[in-house]
## 1
Amino acid sequence: MGIWILNARVVSAGNETQAKHVLVEGGLVARIADADGTSPDIGGHEVIDAKGKLLTPGLIDMHVHLREPGFEHKETIATGTRSAARGGFTTIACMPNTRPVIDTVETVKYVLDKAETEGVVRVLPYGCITKNELGRELTDFEALKEAGVIGYTDDGVGVQSAQMMKDAMAKAASIGMPVIAHCEDNTLVEGAAFSEGSFARKHGLKGIPNESEAIHVGRDILLAEATGVHYHVCHVSTEQSVRLIRQAKQIGIKVTAEVCPHHLLLSDEDIPGLDANWKMNPPLRTPRDVQACIEGLMDGTIDIIVTDHAPHSEEEKARGVQLAPFGIVGFETAFPLLYTKFVETGAWSLEFLIDKMTKLPAEVFGLPWGTITEGKPADLTLIDLESEKAVDPAEFASKGRNTPFTGWVLKGWPTLTMVEGKVVWSV
Ligand SMILES: NC(=O)N[C@@H](CC(=O)O)C(=O)O
Ligand SMILES: [Zn+2]
Ligand SMILES: [Zn+2]
């Protein structure tokens, strides 16, 4: 028995949508029919009446932290995947900065097993570039690939040695795998919590300069050119990084990039005070950087949107801005934030936003999801574009409540998430 999703609206082009009935059967999209006021033959199938809500391909998030194993007080695969489902995500790629880090076949297997038994959405793990993310010795790339990782990254820290990064890229290129980089030169950061800008100046704090990110982006672009690897830049946040990536793409270097909602919506000038819910890495930069990230996304320099969902406990975030860990949660606010602030305002089309969170991440990483196509897996999300609701962290399925968006009144809330034909969450 399958499920008919009746009277959904599917984006056709720009802001245009078409009314469709979609039959899901055997985990696949079996039929997409025009909903011209008529009802299809339901047969013995179940029915979900979408009542005109938007039906999108399940959202894909290529940069998330599920914290398991080792930091289960922050998040688990069970809670993190439920949070993802509430945010409309059906496929998520988890970062390896767990404890132990994901640098062995055993840990990859552990994560995949947990995801299978306790998770509700598809989880794709990354493996570390270096053992323990210490930057000293490469992991066994072939073995990790064999175990099921989709790429290599030391997210959480930058790979400080250029030679180590070059070796990693050469190795990854030789087996057709991408290198995903958290770009940060430690010598330029040294303990700062916020970016170099008006907020840090006002509070007499040492700032994180833009170059700490962009120096790695520039270095790695040259190394990607030399090695031919697919190089993907994590959480781009500076004007300089956008410029370097734009130039690299122009001359045909295989570089792709991602940006987070918070770097598109907030600058350091918005930080209300010394509150660790506004502390994340990379930090909120200047309004000029925010503008550059938006332009980079719009002209295709930045390929995709990711959340960098980074839950931490309330106790950890209450340690004061200097000691609190970097990171904010992202799953359950991403789509409503971007829909309300960019699509409703007319800056972007609905198609543009959805592509950046579905089709394009799939294309960048060569994944088979991200579209609504007959015969393809039924990863689908229903979204209510009408109802307004304020962000309330108490409602999150995530263990993390660490968000700077509390109280923001938004539209575009997901109401149902389906993975391979199975409803994994609905309101
Ligand atoms: N983004 C963050 O502020 N924090 C991430 C690490 C990372 O993505 O670099 C985390 O693991 O908490
Ligand atoms: Zn990072
Ligand atoms: Zn991250």
## 2
Amino acid sequence: MNDGTEDGVSTNDGVRKAAELLGAEPSRAVAAVDFDGTLAPIVPRPEDARGDAAAVAALGRLGERIGTVAVVTGRPAELAVEYGGFAEVPGLERMVVLGHYGAERWDAAAGRVEPVGEAVPAGRLAELRAGLERLTADREQAPEGVRLEDKGRALAVHVRETDDPVRALALLDGPVRALAREVGMVVEPGRMVLEVRPAGVDKGAALASLCGAAGTPVLYAGDDLGDVPAFREVRRRGGFLVYVAAETGEAPVKALAAMADVIVDGVPGLAEFLSAVADQLA
Ligand SMILES: O=P(O)(O)OC[C@H]1O[C@H](O[C@H]2O[C@H](CO)[C@@H](O)[C@H](O)[C@H]2O)[C@H](O)[C@@H](O)[C@@H]1O
């Protein structure tokens, strides 16, 4: 954890404030975290990402003390459950995973994924897949190292493994947006990635449906642009926000840093923070 002095809030103050908020009504309280870059360290290949054992255990410790713990992610819910290693972790027996930015919900208690809302027709996804395959095979528009991740309901174009990711993103941005428009989907930019996903969902709406009525005490932690709607929703509800600053040397996400109550150093910083909040609640 850093001392959070950039925004004038020490992390110790943050731990105390977060524990006070969640502890005021523990049975109603919600603690939700993003997956990649928050609970799982960033790695070059999406399929190699795994939940950090200390961070997952800390989330479980919170789960033993409050009503709801959740993961809100752009990943398919089932994949986040598998990569997160949530099975058998004490305190996560009732956890919720909201996948695909809220288009899927997995409840640990039921052990299955339910779709939320309308799915994009298979034909449009096939059209998008074909367009992105053509684009990423074209070396004039997609440099060596560009990778396509097929997530079923969405596709992501990754540039982390190219020689110059910033240039690769600049080259791909226009063509990816054009393909998204053609199939009526939207582009979600993230850390070294451009994702094409269905419109009509975001992490703010997902979190709102999880929290329900106003007044639910809520803490949220995230690291990327896709978390901005969740940060806004939590701010609107008077909740507590943790920005997980990148450990990989990437530029900070200013919108998150500006709204955060506390800034922690990467996934290990979040593990330490959640664990300290759980200690205070004990
Ligand atoms: O909402 P999130 O849980 O943060 O998911 C957002 C995207 O994360 C993944 O990509 C990111 O993590 C990869 C593994 O560490 C990394 O290689 C990549 O550069 C990051 O952008 C994931 O692959 C995407 O599908 C998610 O949408």
